[in-house]
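Figure 6 in text form: structure in, sequence out.
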């Protein structure tokens, strides 16, 4: 019989499901070295956010087939390490959406009416009615940062409470925001106008310290911030200083840079700061939902069936997968690339299978393209199982076409996306050794391998341009690994594709587009 280790508190409904197919051992609060010691015995591991599933744990788990996260965020699991070891990682993308959204609303209300401190004062035998003067949320403006599942639910509740709604989400269309009663605006506008700001985004390099001294400086003195998403999105030291000085009116945090929260200036603040110990998902209902959702997937995988919310393994027919594997990687890379060039808020994606590739089933390649496209917004949360649904929910119209005529490559894949920076296209193919080549950008023939850091320019084909770009990159200490120019006619329009050894520093794009003859420039990180 299989063995499952449950290393965080999980609702008994989940344990009952696991017990149908496995011997279940519940051992919470294990020290990391103890977890590493016992994990080799187990076929599956089920956790919440308390257990850190590090590379060391994964490497020691020689029998592990699946790791289940009873919740949304999988940032406590080393996904690349699990993927490399072929271990499926599953989560429950929706099981605690309502709970987290309701906690954000509860914190907003508690902050507005000083409920925690007023409660404490009465319990201490005081009756301080003047001290705890509140303010109403009715007709106030709520700025929702991240209009995904939780942000959307918060928006709909806040709307029913008579709030005006602004939203910032670079990967959501204005139409989708409108359907939710929100006006999609840029981040600075939201910071300046909102009376309440609620964060519902993943922690990524772009969102780390999104709320800092500078962004707080743009807010109203009456603004209140709520964070029920992830620690590290707010610079806690800067927030403490701003609240101390009365630069903004309050903040309520459920999540922290380091959990459990250690020594922190946040603890010294008064009624203008509410702290909860990562309780967003802590409702009886959500805990049953996530426990059942994840336990069912662990049961299925242990029985040899596919998982419905795998974060790292495509949920497609294994035979089709094996055959298309190299092309799936091509589709993901091209989707990621065209998504970045088209600039977010994509509302249309065309996927064209060309040449020999046209004889294949298009659906897996469409899913892989969408996965690559959406990974800019959703990171590891988008997978082969949910990419199409996520795209539909985001209002992305997908067009699949096939063209059997053979061009320079026997089979190639062409993607065209329309986003906030206009409509752009990219074509790619595989070399005989399986290596990916980008063969066309916006109609211009090129031949470059994808690389971590890339720069593309659309420019006039005229003397001096290449040199000026090379010089500019040199001045910023950016090393060029390879460079290619594609043009259709001499001294007409052209495309330049550069693979770089270093990321492009902030501000350089503006300098590049300032060079006479350069039309547009795009950075791409793959
Ligand atoms: N406090 C708690 O106990 C809980 C916290 N969470 C956290 O809440 C957050 C939101 O979860 P869901 O709504 O389920 O995720 P989701 O994936 O449905 O939505 C996230 C949204 O953020 C947007 N986004 C990505 N990068 C952005 C950026 N730079 N600026 C603005 N928007 C950006 C995405 O387009 C997406 O619409 C996650 O960080 C999740 O881990 C989730 C459940 C419980
Ligand atoms: O397990 C928990 O309580 C944390 C929930 C959470 O943060 C998540 O699902 O992302």
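Output sequence:
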């Amino acid at each position: 019989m299989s063995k499952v280790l449950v290393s965080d508190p999980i609702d008994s409904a989940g344990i009952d499901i696991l017990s149908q197919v496995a011997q279940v051992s519940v051992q919470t609060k294990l020290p990391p070295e103890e977890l590493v010691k016992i994990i080799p015995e187990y076929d599956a591991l089920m956790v919440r956010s308390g257990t850190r599933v590090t590379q060391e744990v994964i490497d020691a788990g020689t029998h592990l087939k699946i790791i289940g996260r009873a919740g949304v965020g999988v940032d406590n699991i080393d996904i690349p390490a699990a993927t490399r070891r072929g271990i499926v990682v599953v989560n429950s993308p929706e099981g605690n959406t309502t709970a987290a959204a309701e906690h954000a609303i509860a914190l907003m209300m508690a902050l507005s009416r000083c409920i925690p401190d007023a409660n404490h004062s009465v319990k201490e035998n005081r009756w301080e009615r003047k001290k705890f003067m509140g303010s109403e949320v009715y007709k106030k403006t709520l700025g929702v940062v991240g209009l995904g599942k939780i942000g959307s639910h918060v928006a709909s509740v806040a709307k029913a409470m008579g709030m005006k709604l602004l939203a910032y989400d670079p990967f959501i269309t204005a139409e989708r925001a409108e359907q939710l009663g929100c006006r999609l605006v840029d981040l600075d506008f939201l910071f300046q106008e909102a009376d309440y700001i609620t964060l519902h985004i993943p922690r990524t390099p772009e969102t780390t310290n999104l709320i800092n001294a500078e962004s707080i400086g743009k807010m109203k003195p009456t603004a209140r911030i709520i964070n029920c998403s992830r620690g590290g999105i707010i610079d806690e030291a800067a927030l403490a200083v701003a609240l101390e000085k009365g630069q903004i009116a309050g903040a309520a945090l459920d999540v922290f840079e380091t959990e459990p929260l250690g020594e922190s200036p946040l603890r010294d603040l008064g009624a203008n700061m509410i702290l909860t110990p990562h309780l967003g998902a802590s409702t009886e209902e959500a805990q049953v939902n996530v426990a059942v959702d994840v336990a069912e997937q662990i049961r299925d995988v242990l029985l040899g069936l596919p998982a419905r919310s795998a974060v790292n393994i495509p949920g497609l027919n294994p035979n089709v997968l094996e055959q298309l594997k190299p092309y799936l990687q091509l589709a993901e890379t091209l989707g990621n690339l065209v998504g970045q060039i088209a600039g977010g808020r994509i509302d249309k994606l065309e996927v064209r299978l060309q040449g020999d590739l046209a004889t294949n089933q298009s659906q897996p390649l469409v899913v892989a393209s969408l996965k690559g496209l959406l990974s800019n917004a959703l990171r590891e949360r988008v997978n082969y199982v949910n990419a199409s649904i996520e795209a539909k929910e985001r209002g992305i119209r997908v067009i699949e076409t096939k063209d059997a005529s053979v061009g320079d490559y026997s089979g190639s894949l062409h993607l065209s996306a329309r986003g906030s920076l206009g409509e752009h296209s990219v074509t790619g193919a595989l070399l005989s050794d399986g290596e990916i080549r980008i063969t066309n950008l916006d109609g211009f023939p090129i031949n470059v391998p994808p690389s971590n850091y890339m720069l593309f320019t659309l420019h006039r084909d005229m003397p001096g341009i290449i040199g000026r770009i090379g010089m500019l990159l040199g001045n910023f200490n950016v090393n060029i690994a390879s460079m290619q120019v594609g043009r259709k006619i001499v001294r007409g329009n052209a495309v330049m594709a550069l693979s770089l050894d270093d990321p492009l520093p902030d501000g350089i794009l503006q300098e590049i587009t300032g060079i006479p003859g350069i039309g547009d420039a795009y950075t791409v990180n793959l």
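Caption detail: Residues 48-49, 71-73, 96, 278, 280-282 surround 2-oxoglutaric acid (ligand 2) (CB under 6 Å).
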